[in-house]
Amino acid sequence: MAKSKTELKEIRKLFEAEDTSKNKLGLSLVDKAIFMEETLGKLQAKIEENGVVTEMCQGTYTIERENPALKSYTSLIKNYNSIIKQIYDLLPSEEPKTDEFEDFE
Q1: Torsion of CA 22, 26, 28, 34, to 10 degrees
Q2: Cβ contacts of residue 38 below 8 Å, gap of 6+?
Q3: In Å, how far from its chain's centre is CA 55?
């Protein structure tokens, strides 16, 4: 379900076409999705660099724990997928394509 930043910017143009409250909401959601996508990329880089488990010093010893970036990534990706669905629900539906054979008289 994830979209690239370029695709989101193209979708943004669709919402900019008309000045309606539905489109204003769509623009806001697209802007948030772009921010979330950028943040997900940064978190993913941290996870790839440090792994899903990191060591944390506890005085004279260390413990292993879940990478905090992974916890943030997991939470954010759920919200990102939800916002993408909301964006698609707000997009104008495409006109159903007619069968050219039916148009023939």
Answers
A1: 180
A2: 5
A3: 30
* Cα 29 to Cα 80: distance, rounded to the nearest angstrom: 10
pTM, full prediction: 0.75
Q: Distance (Å, rounded) from C-alpha 42 to C-alpha 46?
A: 6
pLDDT digits over 17-30, tens only? 888 888 899 999 99
Angle at the Cα of 15 (from 27 to 32), degrees rounded to 5? Answer: 20
Residue environment code for 32-43, b if the CB has 16+ CB neighbours within 10 A, otherwise e: ebbebbeebeeb
CB of 21 closer than 8 Å to CB of 97: no
25-47: pLDDT as tens digits: 999 999 999 999 999 999 999 99
Q: Which neighbouring-strand residues pair with 58?
A: 61
For Cα atoms 56, 61, 67, give the angle at the middle one, nearest 5 degrees. 15
